[in-house]
C-alpha cells in the first residue's frame, strides 16, 4: 500500500482555488455530515473549539475519504503535539499565532523527519501508516505534509517576508479577527486599516510564491478576499451556520423580524 498523496497541497501548488469551512462543533458525527457538503477542505479547530487529540483524530477519520480534505488547527505549535497529530494520519496543519521567523523555522523542523527535521519516528503505531501497512510512509511523509502558518498580529506581518521565504512553509493564513484586535480594532476585522494590512500581507505572500489563506463569515467580504487573491478561503463555520439556521426557522414560523447583527469575526 503506497503512502497517500496530499490533494490540498497539490492544489495550492498548482494555483487551484480551494474553498473551505470551519468545523468547530467538536463532533465526529457533525463533521461527517459537513463532509458531504462539497467543500474542498474542512478545518477541524483545535484552538477555539473544545477538542483534544482523540477527538481531533476522530473528526479527521469522519471527514477523510468523503470529498473534503481535513485540515487540523492545533491550539499551539508544540513539537510533541505536532508529532502526535501527524501520527494519527493528518497531512495538513494550520498553526496559529506565528509571530517570528524563528517560530516558523522550528515548526518546519517539527513536521519533518531527520535529517531535515526533528519529528520522532513512531508512525507504525498510528493511522498515518495504516498501522504499519504503508511501508514507504517514512520515505514520503516529508513531501506530503502541508504546513500552513497563521499570521494574526502586527509582529507576524512585520516578519511575513522572512516567514514566507522559508522552504517547508506551504502557505500563510491571515487571521483577521486576532489581527484586528492587535491593531486596536477588536471585533471589527472589516476595518479599513485591517483590510489594508491584509492587502499588503497578501501581496508579500504572493511575491514569495506561497499560498494565501483567510477566513470570513461575511459573504461580501469573502468575495473581496477572493478578488484580492486568496488561494484558499473559508466562508463560514458549522457553529454559526447551525445557529443562524435554527434561529431563522423559528423566526420565520412565528413571523418575527430578523434582528440586526454586525460582523465581528468568529
Automatic annotation (TrEMBL):
Gene3D superfamilies: Phosphoenolpyruvate-binding domains. The keyword Transmembrane does not apply. It catalyses: D-glyceraldehyde + pyruvate = 2-dehydro-3-deoxy-L-galactonate. It comes from the Bacteria. Pfam families: HpcH_HpaI (PF03328). Coiled coil: none annotated. One of its GO terms (cellular component) is cytoplasm. It comes from Sinorhizobium glycinis. GO terms for molecular function: aldehyde-lyase activity; metal ion binding. Residues 18-244 form the HpcH/HpaI aldolase/citrate lyase domain. Keywords: Lyase, Metal-binding, Pyruvate. InterPro entries: Aldolase/citrate-lyase_domain, HpaI, HpcH-HpaI_aldolase, Pyrv/PenolPyrv_kinase-like_dom, Pyrv_kinase-like_dom_sf. This is 2-keto-3-deoxy-L-rhamnonate aldolase. Its cofactor is a divalent metal cation. GO terms for biological process: phenylacetate catabolic process. Belongs to the HpcH/HpaI aldolase family.
Amino acid at each position: 500500500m503506497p503512502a497517500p498523496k496530499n490533494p490540498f497541497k497539490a492544489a495550492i501548488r498548482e494555483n487551484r482555488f480551494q474553498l473551505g469551512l470551519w468545523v468547530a462543533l467538536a463532533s465526529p458525527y457533525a463533521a461527517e455530515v459537513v463532509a458531504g457538503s462539497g467543500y474542498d477542505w474542512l478545518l477541524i479547530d483545535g484552538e477555539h473549539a473544545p477538542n483534544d487529540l482523540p477527538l481531533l483524530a476522530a473528526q479527521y477519520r469522519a471527514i477523510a475519504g468523503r470529498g473534503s480534505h481535513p485540515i487540523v488547527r492545533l491550539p499551539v505549535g508544540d513539537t510533541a503535539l505536532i508529532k502526535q497529530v501527524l501520527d494519527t494520519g493528518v497531512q495538513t496543519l494550520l498553526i496559529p499565532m506565528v509571530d517570528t521567523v524563528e517560530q516558523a523555522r522550528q515548526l518546519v523542523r517539527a513536521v519533518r523527519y531527520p535529517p531535515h527535521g526533528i519529528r520522532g519516528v513512531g508512525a507504525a503505531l498510528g493511522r498515518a501508516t495504516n498501522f504499519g501497512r504503508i511501508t514507504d510512509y517514512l520515505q514520503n511523509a516529508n513531501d506530503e505534509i502541508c504546513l500552513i502558518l497563521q499570521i494574526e498580529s502586527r509582529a507576524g506581518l512585520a516578519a511575513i517576508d522572512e516567514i514566507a521565504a522559508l522552504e517547508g512553509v506551504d502557505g500563510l493564513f491571515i487571521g483577521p479577527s486576532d489581527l484586528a484586535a492587535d491593531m486596536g480594532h477588536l471585533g471589527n476585522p472589516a476595518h479599513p486599516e485591517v483590510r489594508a494590512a491584509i492587502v499588503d500581507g497578501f501581496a508579500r505572500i504572493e511575491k514569495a510564491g506561497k499560498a494565501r489563506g483567510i477566513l470570513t463569515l461575511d459573504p461580501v467580504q469573502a468575495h473581496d478576499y477572493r478578488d484580492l487573491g486568496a488561494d484558499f478561503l473559508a466562508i463560514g463555520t458549522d457553529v454559526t451556520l447551525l445557529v443562524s439556521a435554527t434561529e431563522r426557522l423559528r423566526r420565520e414560523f412565528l413571523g418575527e423580524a430578523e434582528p440586526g447583527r454586525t460582523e465581528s469575526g468568529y
